[in-house]
Structures are given as C-alpha cells and as structure tokens.
Design goal:
This protein is of the alpha+beta class. It has two helices and eleven strands, in the order αβββββββββββα. A hairpin with a 2-residue loop joins strand 1 and strand 2.
C-alpha cells in the first residue's frame, strides 16, 4: 500500500510536469484556458500537502487538455497559461499530512495519506475563478459507475 501510494504520487507529479512542459513553446494554439485557485480542506482543516487534478469530463461532452497543481498549506493555483478549459470536469484530490516519514526503508516526503484519492465533479465557467473544495468521503464519486450516468453535474458555490 505504502509503495503503491509513493509510486502513484511520483507518477502523478511526473505526468503533470511533462504535461506542463509540453506547452512551453510559446504558441497560443489550442482552447482558451482559465486560471483557477482556491482552498482544499479535509475535516475542516487545510490539506497540508497534496495534488489537485482537473480532467475535462468526456461523459458530459467536455474535451481539451487537463491540468493540475500542488496543494500547499490548503491552497492551490494552476500555473499561468496552464489553467483549465472550463465546462464539466472530474476533479481528483490527493492529500498528505506533509510530515516526512520512512517506511520499509523508503523515505516518503509527503508523509501519511490523509484520505483515499478523492473524486468529484464540477462545472467550471469559462473564466478565471476561485473554487474551494472540502474533501469528504461521503461525497466521493465512484468513477467506474458514475462517469456514465446521466445525472446532472453538481455546481458548487464559488
């Protein structure tokens, strides 16, 4: 479990880094992208360390590049020019306590996992904005079954 979590975290960070570098050529081709930022909490407290990923929800007819960024002390902000495309998205959040530990001889700088990988849906407007997420196991969506549903996307208050 610990090794799988570390591998997941490292792969997620590497994938996001490669994705961000792929667009560093200065070209303005592609869809408009909008900067998003905000707070992420768990049990009413800021998530000390984590990662938030935004993927256009193809089951709701949205497409385009995804994005993601680190969470530090409960706050996140997408890189300038690398925000999201707007419209329905699946949001994935990973969170750790940020206290480095060593388990089975392996150093885990992110610390202990606070909650399993969390998923939710959000319909973002096509504009820059600030959006806060409160992680709760009660509102996690199972992607295998929910992604194909015809239920409307929940829009959270800004």
């Amino acid at each position: 479990m610990i090794i799988e979590r570390t591998i997941f975290f490292r792969c997620l960070c590497l994938a996001m880094l490669l994705g961000m570098c792929a667009g560093c050529g200065g070209s303005s081709d592609g869809p408009d992208r909008f900067a998003v930022s905000g707070e992420v909490t768990f049990e009413g407290k800021p998530v000390p360390m984590g990662f938030i990923k935004f993927t256009p929800d193809s089951s709701q007819g949205n497409s385009g590049p995804g994005t993601g960024c680190p969470i530090k002390d409960g706050e996140y902000a997408t890189p300038k020019g690398k925000g999201l495309v707007g419209g329905p998205h699946i949001v994935e959040i990973a969170g750790w306590d940020g206290v480095p530990i060593t388990e089975s001889g392996e150093r885990l700088p992110e610390g202990t996992e606070l909650f399993p990988l969390y998923h939710t849906r959000f319909d973002f407007p096509k504009s820059d904005g600030e959006y806060n997420f409160a992680v709760s196991p009660d509102t996690d969506i199972p992607l295998e079954t929910d992604a194909a549903s015809e239920e409307p996307i929940e829009t959270l208050a800004e």
